[in-house]
Amino acid sequence: MDCFATRRDRVRRTLARHHADAVLVTNFTNVTYLTGFTGDDSYLLVDEQGEVVLSDPRYTTQLDEQCPGVEVCIRPPGTTMLDALKRVVAARKTRRLAVEGQSMTVGLRDDIAATLPQVKLATTNALVEHFRQVKDRHEVAAIRQAVYMAQKGFDALRAALQRERTEKDLADELEFAMRRFGARDRAFASIVAAGPRAALPHATTTLAPIGKNDFVLVDWGAHGGLYRSDLTRVLVTGKISPKLKKIYKVVLDAQLAAIEAIRPGVVCEDVDAVARRLITKAGFGRQFGHGLGHGIGLDIHEGPRLAVGSRVILRPGMVVTVEPGIYLPGWGGVRIEDDVLVTRAGYEVLTSVPKRLDESIVALA
Predict the structure, then answer these.
(1) 3-state DSSP helix/strand/coil % of the chain, to nearest 5
(2) Which residue segments constitute the domains of the chain, with CATH numbers given?
(3) pLDDT for the residue numbered 1
């Protein structure tokens, strides 16, 4: 049985728990996870009889190539997805339909209810997303490949770093290099933030040159086709001040300690607490205002979350980022991020970009 059929079977086994005859998957990313189909504007219905993809004529050939053996309902031009859903539900005699509460708009749910007045709707809570938290070997291999693409891109950026180049120019260089090494796209909008702008955790690139700033924060990742990677490093482009040296050490120590805490059975917020205690003890607790990390996969942000209040228990196969940071407005910020696989014995760091302070120095004229 292929991995997609196995995933659909997991969903199928939840039908009784949701008191449903079928599950309607409307989140396009979840449809991809369950079928391998990479198009959009398509739904998947899973029931005891099997499964059927609801789509339109644009994707007829693509569905045949990517989802062999899966039943497909192609809606004719001039009809809607709701028309196709009504036809499929009637043919399969569905009376109780589970829908995706977290990714469905209220408007769509109301439209489905109006279209299927004889069908009782049940709302699920992150049904497919729960399964997506634990990656199988195919997914881990794809994330490894996305890490490789990202790291090759970073090598190119580091080699191209010059004071007259702008943040945007360097981000473009990074993203082009990742594509040259096989990436379909960037995993998210790359961050290249020089000096004081590194104090913005989600800084957008500008046309300002690197100039005489002493450091540059780079947060980037590759979209490998389906799966993604996510890394952050700080490159030293000038003088290592006592302040930079101190803050960098606090962040790196916190990150290394948190990674060491990762293993099966550990609660996610407890890993966050390891890093947060060290940063707070150093006097920077208020300057670490985000969670320690998040899951990565088909989406750049998915479960589980390493954060205060996250009671999810780590399991082998989960892949998370570990990215503590300290941000001081007017001065800048330091964040160090790696992608970490939870293994049966503990953890494996998938990323290997050097991160000691002395390894992060780039000599610029």
Answers:
(1) 40, 25, 40
(2) 3-132 (3.40.350.10), 137-360 (3.90.230.10)
(3) 53
